[in-house]
Design brief:
Elements: H1 16-24, H2 29-35, H3 52-57, H4 81-106, H5 108-119, H6 127-158, H7 164-186, H8 189-198
Helix pairs in contact: 4-6, 4-7, 6-7
Length: 200
């Protein structure tokens, strides 16, 4: 019928040992010329790794072979000394600002009332809202400061530029205070009447 095919040197009919032997066998220049391919010389990979079959046979004899942990290839950079100093100073200023503003924010109606009296507005009546806004502003400031400490620490350990984190947190904290103060003052009818009277 048909000619019997020659037995393959590797592939689906080859045993695992024959496949391994064929793969490990280098192709020299003469053999490569016969096959019409480039010569292949295997790189020295050290001692041969046991096959899966060999590993499963000897599981009781030896510990399983584990691959080394993959390296990300990146070594953490050392943070710039000036950056660490600037970050520490900015975090310290944030803490001082938080401590200084704490009494005023806890008694926001007492802070707003004298300011309105100086502008000629009397009878501030939104004490409940002002107290709530003061506590909210203080809570958000504390959260922003703690968040800045955590993020700055992580960033410094990773060796990244960090001074901008407490700087952004400080700006955000001041914006929060201004918004809460504006809400507390804007809700008072006497203050809004004063604002309307100042418009031409």
């Amino acid at each position: 019928m048909s000619e019997p095919r020659p037995r393959p040197q590797f592939g689906e009919y080859a045993t695992p040992e024959e496949q391994r032997a064929s793969i490990a066998e280098p192709i020299d220049a003469q053999r490569a010329e016969e096959l019409g391919v480039a010569p292949v010389v295997p790189a020295d990979h050290g001692p041969a790794q046991p096959t899966l079959r060999e590993q499963t046979r000897h599981t009781t004899d030896a510990a399983p072979v584990t691959a080394p942990a993959p390296s990300t290839g990146r070594t953490p950079r050392r943070p710039v000394t000036g950056d660490r100093l600037a970050t520490s100073i900015l975090l310290g200023l944030g803490l001082v600002s938080l401590i200084v503003m704490m009494p005023g924010l806890l008694d926001l109606p007492g802070l707003i009332r004298p300011a309105l009296v100086q502008m000629g507005v009397s009878g501030y009546s939104s004490d409940g809202l002002a107290s709530a806004m003061g506590v909210l502003a203080l809570g958000l400031q504390i959260a922003l400061w703690v968040g800045a400490i955590i993020l700055s620490g992580r960033s410094l350990r990773a060796g990244r530029l960090t001074f901008w984190i407490p700087l952004v947190a400080g700006v955000a904290a001041n914006i929060v205070v201004v918004i809460c103060l504006a809400i507390a003052m804007g809700a008072d009818p006497a203050f809004m009447e004063y604002v309307r009277s100042q418009q031409p």
